[in-house]
Amino acid sequence: MVQRQANRRSLIGPGLALIGSAAVVVSGWLPWLGAGDMTASTFDQPAYFLVDSTARVTGLRLGALVVFIGAIGIVGALVPGLRFLSVLSGLGAVALGGLFYLQANYLLDAVGGQVDSLGLGGLSGLDLGALNLDLVDFVDYGVYAAIGGGVLAIVGGCLASARR
Q1: Is residue 77 within 8 Å of 156, Cβ to Cβ?
Q2: Long-range CB contacts (< 8 A, 24+ apart) of 97-101?
Q3: Residue 137 has what pLDDT?
Q4: What global pTM score does this model have?
Q5: Residue 38 phi, psi dihedral angles, 5° rounding
Q6: Cβ atoms 55, 108 nearer than 8 A
Q7: What are the C-alpha distances in Å from 93 to residues 10, 54, 88, 119, 162?
Q8: Of 5, 31, 70, 123, which is the most buried if we count CB atoms within 10 A?
Q9: pLDDT of 83-138, one tens digit each?
Q10: What's the pLDDT score for residue 124?
């Protein structure tokens, strides 16, 4: 009986880390930006958006980075000797979500008008100024899924790494 309870407790941390990391991976395909009926996932946006929201840069998509960070967390959740990877992955996901939120705010302030060829996929050609959006309306639930998944991965990784 005591052994069973100890086994259950030892699975809570890796389980939380696995669920959180999987949420980060899935969040890559969820909408991160939205305006009216139009949305854009991380695969519609360049990773450079995290550095400069108005740059017209192509290349590595933000979705690839999100999926990579989540996959690192999954490895950390599944491999006992690498539990610290779940914590690092979670920190990365929270930081990525925070940077994205910050850049979305800068984009609303800087552009205030047509969103042409900014590499935002489904939002290209949209007149943000006419929609009179605020940041809460512009940032969609994919960002919150990544941040929440990151927090779960951190908690799960810490629980799994704790010495008993």
Answers
A1: yes
A2: 97/143, 97/144, 97/146, 97/147, 97/150, 98/147, 99/50, 100/32, 100/49, 100/50, 100/62, 100/139, 100/143, 101/135, 101/139, 101/143
A3: 75
A4: 0.83
A5: -95, 135
A6: no
A7: 24, 22, 9, 21, 21
A8: 70
A9: 999 999 999 999 999 999 898 888 777 665 445 444 455 555 555 555 566 777 77
A10: 53
